[in-house]
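Mods, move this if it's the wrong board.
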Amino acid sequence: MFHVIIPARYSASRLPGKPLLRLGDRPLLQWVWQCARAGGAESVTIATDDARIADAARDFGADCVMTSPQHNSGTDRIAEVVRARRLAADDIVVNLQGDEPMMPASVITDVAAALRTRPDIDMAAAVAPIASLEEFLDPACVKALRAQNGDALYFSRAPVPWPRDNVAAGRPLGFAGAWRHIGIYAYRVRSLLQLSAWPPTPLEQTEKLEQLRALEHGMRIHLVTLTEAPPAGVDTPEDLQRVRRLLEPAPAPAPTPAPAQR
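Not the wrong board. Structure tokens:
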């Protein structure tokens, strides 16, 4: 079995109050919590530092833990919950971001299963094939380099692997073999606590990617391959409108007026 912990904070710079914004008849965070529950976890916990989020989470029936407002990352917030709950060193914890209302339950299950079946792995994440050249060149799309055994070699905002023999005027003409990193993680508790205890590393600070801290310290991250990327999460007002269109039912068509009686 495994546990899911959902870090959620109120003060997102691009979309303040994001976890409590409405998608249909419920807050965004409730959709995320329902995704986690559908994945078959032993427990699902919301970790927050804001009383408004905690109150809303308890209103829809979620287990919620108040955490320190001083954390620099969701990983640190999750580590506090793990310590408070006294989870065992070999327990598996999935970090599901609080802005992923459309994460398939199967992805949550698969990253947890990757650790359960590979006792020598510290962490697991997911990747999907890059879908377009625009995506390949976008620094917001984190690329993952994957070894033949499924381990992560590196993560980068740069377009990698660079197709040296398929470039014109300094621009790649293809992106074969490129993987997009999906921002969901499974950890063994001992690895999570160790990762949280280490200070940021040089590559992490350069790329602004926390998972590089794990690789720089020699941790093994297994990458679960998906056939396609799940719908993107919510970072901006535009993302919120996109997800609303996907999740909210279309309005019923207006009834056709009856023909006039003569």
